[in-house]
Amino acid sequence: MIDSEDLARRFLSTLEARDWDAWAALLAEDVVYEMPQTRERVTGRAAYLAFNQTYPGEWHLSPKVVIGNSQRAVAWFGFRLDDESGGGQAFIEIGPDGLITRVTDFWPEPYDPPARPVPVERW
């Protein structure tokens, strides 16, 4: 049985540590990442990795509450981006192979996304 809470914690901790190899190893090749507030979608492990590696600013994440079952996890986390701080939520879906297939992030307020050097679909 998949320990989704542990997987979600490792997802956040490897992301915070910028341990890109360990973080990418948690993701399915065709993972989908969405942010409803900015209507952005990133498809595929390589694009999601590049998205995070090139995200502007000095950002940090710290988990507050993580819960889950065998197919999903949700993490409430604190964030700091440069001088701004707040909370966000990540809803994580897990495939039968134990890899993350989808991540949907919710941030405190809708905002216009920054310019990015990676392909991002807007809806």
UniProtKB/TrEMBL annotation:
Pfam families linked: SnoaL_2
Top-level taxonomic group: Bacteria
InterPro entries: NTF2-like_dom_sf (IPR032710), SnoaL-like (IPR037401)
Source organism (scientific name): Nocardioides bigeumensis
Residue stretches making up the SnoaL-like domain: 8-100
Annotated signal peptide: none
Name by which UniProt lists this protein: Nuclear transport factor 2 family protein
